Amino acid sequence: MTNIKDYPAIVISNKHIDDNIFLIELLLPGFDGKAEPGQFIMIKIDETYDPFLRRPYSIFECKKEKVKILIKTVGKGSKMIAEKKRKEEMDILGPLGNGFPVDKNNYPILVAGGMGIAPLWFLGRRLTKLRNKFSIIFGEKTTTPLAEEIKKTFGAKVFFVTDDGSRGIKLTASAALPLILDKSPYRKFSIYACGPKGMLKDVINFGSGRNIPVYVSLEEKMACGIGVCLGCSVKRRGTDGFLTVCRDGPVFKGEEVMI
Amino acid sequence: MNIDLTTKIGELRFKNPVLTASGTFGYGLIMEEFSDVSLLGGIITKSITLKPKVGNPAPRIVETACGMLNSIGLENRGIDNFLEDILPGIRRFKTNIIASIAGKDEDEYGLLAERLDRQVSAIEVNISCPNVKEGGMSFGQDISSTKRVIKKVRMKTALPVIVKLTPNVTSIEDIAKVSEDNGADAVSLVNTYKGLSIDISSRKPELGSFTGGLSGPAIKPLALYSIWKVAKNIDIPVIGCGGIMNFNDAIEFFMAGASLIEIGSATFREPNAALKILKGIKHFLKTKKIKAIKEIVGTVNEN
Ligand SMILES: Cc1cc2nc3c(=O)[nH]c(=O)nc-3n(C[C@H](O)[C@H](O)[C@H](O)COP(=O)(O)OP(=O)(O)OC[C@H]3O[C@@H](n4cnc5c(N)ncnc54)[C@H](O)[C@@H]3O)c2cc1C
Ligand SMILES: Cc1cc2nc3c(=O)[nH]c(=O)nc-3n(C[C@H](O)[C@H](O)[C@H](O)COP(=O)(O)O)c2cc1C
Ligand code: FES
């Protein structure tokens, strides 16, 4: 049985992290807290029909009935969500999709580009809880207060890169991968990536070149979020068929998909 | 008070008039995780083609004011897969299973009907998909090809045949009449309205295949008007569809002349939408002391 449900959620807090980035904590009454890093929720913003569709957001953290999301305002829907205040309501459908599988024998390297940190933050927290060692590469165009939050929580595990050199090394997140790997005392790795498509492509290529398993979390426009509308399809590599991001993903093995 | 929600298409009985629209409910299997599918009057499958179909390039959906455009392009695994892998798993649903079919030409429609004969409760003939190059909506926009497709399907199956109409025509009531005259047991309408959305910074269409089909609350008044026109022009049952979001919308469709309704995009906002609407219909009839759903069909006051 799945624990997917439509929860009448209540905003507990809404913290302004940066100009356009908000951390919202929600109370999902009755939710058992069972969710995997990489899974997401669909938010029904309000009872009017504009915006018409729900909006997908990665689970950023979750503890029993409390679920956090990290949201960047990019358009109408995200702005309306970011304006929600304490005690306001939104319907939350979830937890949806498949999360990141953890290979116990491999050293995890998390590669996040900008807002791609959202599902990887949850993975980092999970790995910390499991007492697993891991590294994070966090890349941004230019540094933001988000990097500060990441540093506070994950400390020395994080390797910062920026396009303009404003924090860490002036490099792309994918180009930082060999630097970390070549210095590492570990032999076997798994790479977990979320971020812009270009970055994901580079990470997948890097992984296949070195025979390292890569797991990517993808984004596509969604209507249903559960696999019935076929709106969120991505090309399946090696066939002329498609996979749905919402139900077959959003986490895929790098070699599974064409992006 | 016992309320009679039953209705019929040909000899096929429906325990209530609420169906789920093709392409918005999968085959019922995923939806089973969210709601009791067996409580519905029926489920209509995603349109099935003869050969597997991969569908259109992404993006396949874009939101518009109070609705959405889609250009899925009939992605499905074909009739063999449906009969062998899907149907055995959904036969146990205690409701009518209606297979939606889409062909490239009338022979394909005929073959599909033949394969499905005696396998499902009824067939919905999709001659109204705006998102495919061959066949699709072009059949439903032309009187003589509508006629040919229905005749062919009628020859190949004894199952009730429902013809799904496109609103992208001048007189939908004429296409409905042709459907009735050539052996359709019911018509369903509307499929989506063809539409376009442009990203002004790139000057590119927002959908991967340029145009798409509009659905949702944005089309409700247009759909309702089509149903009203069609219902006056034919004697077979009309299945109403297009932007039905709640029981109030549903009752409007019955009053305009629909004997049954299909719930489409509403399911995307709420997986349980169809059952909630069914509950609302029952409640409405009860409070108005109306004993049977049939009593309100086509009762809009035109004076
Ligand atoms: C599985 C999944 C997880 C996600 N997790 C997060 C997250 O943790 N934090 C976060 O800030 N965002 C996340 N997103 C993206 C987020 O859903 C979109 O930014 C949001 O839906 C945009 O809505 P809007 O109304 O503000 O924008 P719109 O006005 O609809 O569009 C504005 C811009 O956003 C783009 N956009 C719209 N929908 C999506 C989408 N589904 N995916 C990607 N881009 C989109 C549009 O192409 C457009 O450029 C996730 C998306 C998916 C599919
Ligand atoms: C994502 C999507 C996929 C659809 N796929 C099909 C299809 O395969 N066959 C079909 O006959 N209609 C299809 N339709 C049309 C619906 O069945 C329905 O006629 C239309 O959406 C109008 O109803 P609504 O406004 O309630 O959604 C699809 C609609 C949507 C939104
Ligand atoms: S969003 Fe509907 S199938 Fe993925």
**Distance separating the two termini of chain A:** 32 Å
What ranges of chain B have pLDDT less than 50 throughout 5 or more consecutive residues? Answer: none
Would you count the extended β strands of chain A for me? 17
Structural class, from secondary structure content of chain A? alpha/beta
Number of domains of chain B: 1
* Order of the strands making up the biggest sheet of chain A: 4-3-7-1-2-6-5
Enumerate the strands of the largest sheet of chain B in spatial order, edge to edge or round the barrel.
3-4-7-8-9-10-15-16
Mean pLDDT of chain A: 94
Overall geometry of chain B comes to globular
What is CATH's topology name of chain B? TIM Barrel
Supply the helix-strand structural class of chain B.
Answer: alpha/beta
Order of helices and strands of chain A: EEEEEEHEEHEHEEHEHEEEEE
Shape of chain A: globular
Bound small-molecule species: flavin-adenine dinucleotide, flavin mononucleotide, FE2/S2 (inorganic) cluster
- The SSE string of chain B, one letter per element, is EEEEEEHEHEHHEHEEEEEHEHEHH
The amount of beta strand of chain A, in percent, is: 25-35%
Mean pLDDT of chain B: 96
CATH-defined architecture of the largest domain in chain A: 3-Layer(aba) Sandwich
Largest sheet of chain B, in brief, is: 8 strands, parallel, barrel
- Report the strand count of chain B: 16
Rounded to an integer in angstroms, the radius of gyration calculated over CA atoms of chain B is 18 Å
Describe this structure in words.
Chain A has 259 residues and is an alpha/beta fold. Chain A is 21% helix and 35% strand. Chain A contains five helices and 17 strands. Chain A has a seven-stranded antiparallel beta sheet. In chain A, strand 8, helix 2 and strand 9 form a beta-alpha-beta unit. Chain B has 303 residues and is an alpha/beta fold. In chain B, the strands form four sheets. An eight-stranded parallel barrel of chain B has the order 3-4-7-8-9-10-15-16, surrounded by six helices. Chain B has a four-stranded antiparallel beta sheet with strand order 5-6-14-11, with no helix packed on it. Chain B has a two-stranded antiparallel sheet with strand order 1-2. The two termini of chain B are 31 Å apart. In chain B, 54% of the residues are buried. Classes of the chains: A alpha/beta (259), B alpha/beta (303). FE2/S2 (inorganic) cluster (FES) binds next to loops of chain A.
